[in-house]
Structure formats: C-alpha cells, structure tokens
Amino acid sequence: MSRVRTSMCLLAILVNFPGVAFAADFYAVRLQPSVPLAHEQVVARVSRLSGPECFPPATSLTSAHGTVTLRLDYSDTCQTGQPAPFRDYALGFFAAGSYRLIILTCYNNPPPAPSPCLVAYDQPFRVIGEGVAPAPALSLFASSILCVLFATFGLLAFARSGKCE
User: Fold this and answer.
1) Which residues face 92 on adjacent strands?
2) What is the pTM of this model?
3) pLDDT digits (tens, 9 = 90+) for 45-77
4) Which of 52, 56, 79, 136 is least buried, going by the fewest C-beta atoms within 10 A?
C-alpha cells in the first residue's frame, strides 16, 4: 500500500510541476521611468499577460554584482484582497550602468508537492548618467513628413533614371 501511495504522489508531482513552470513564464515588466537616470528611483511595474493576478508583496529584494533579484512568494490566498492587472515594486536608486532584473516566483505548496522557485523574468536594463540624455523620438507628424519626402525623392530619382516609361 505504501508503494502505491508513493507512486501516486510522484505521479501527482510530475503532472502538476510542469503546469507551475509553464504558468510562471508569462510576466511583463515595464520600468518606470522607462530610461532611468542615476538620481531617479526605479520602479518595476509587473503584470501577468494572461490577466489580473493576486500579486504578493515582495518577499525580498537583493542587489549584488549588477543583478537585482525580486522574490515573490505565492500562497493559496490572495493577500491583496482581489486580483489586479499589475503591481508596482520599488527597486531603488542605481548608479549609471547596466543591470539585470530577475524575478523569482516561489510557490508554497503543501507536502509532498515541491515548492519550487522559478525564474519568471530575466532581462537587462540600463541606468544612464545624469549628463546623458536619451535620444528624442520623432513625433508621428515628423515621421510622416520624412516618409513622404523619402518617397517623393525616390520616385523622382526613379523617373529621371529613364526606367519609368
């Protein structure tokens, strides 16, 4: 009987474990500000692509050797009261340089199921110095004007080449 129970537990673990790993891969993170300066606080806006989530408070936030690790411990209850489309996590202030943000999602499963910690997000981000300003993006109007000009000059050059008869 003990052997059957052990086999059933192992089968349940094998069936449920890939579902946990699969569910942890659908997070999106948007830093605020999107291009942080050295004197600005960096906030990670974490959202789940499949919809609202009961985001837990950060269990730990560590920063070492250019890697920032945010750990989120999930339980069976919704600690925030109800699911939300996103949650902001303050990461802190950083010196100018390149960093890597890792979000670990840990699950508190009852025994004998495993309680894995999975890497849900792992991407680099950059903090620029105070004297360095990001390149400004062109507005929609300016981009449209440039496209029209390039198309006009391209058609004129093609017409003057004699191949447009």
Assistant:
1) 42
2) 0.61
3) 999 888 888 888 888 999 999 999 999 988 777
4) 136
78-102: b (≥16 Cβ within 10 Å) or e: eeeeeeeeebebebeebeeeebebe
Report the run of H or E that residue 158 belongs to, with start and end. Answer: helix 140-160
The parent domain of residue 43 ranges over 18-134
Is 20 a residue whose pLDDT tops 90? no
* Same domain as 55, residue 77: yes
Q: At which residue do the structure tokens 């004998």 appear?
A: 112
Find how far residue 6's CA is from the centre of its chain: 38
pLDDT exceeds 70 at position 138: no
DSSP letter string, 1-50 = -HHHHHHHHHHHHHHHHHHHHHHTT-EEEEEESSS-BTTSEEEEEEEETT
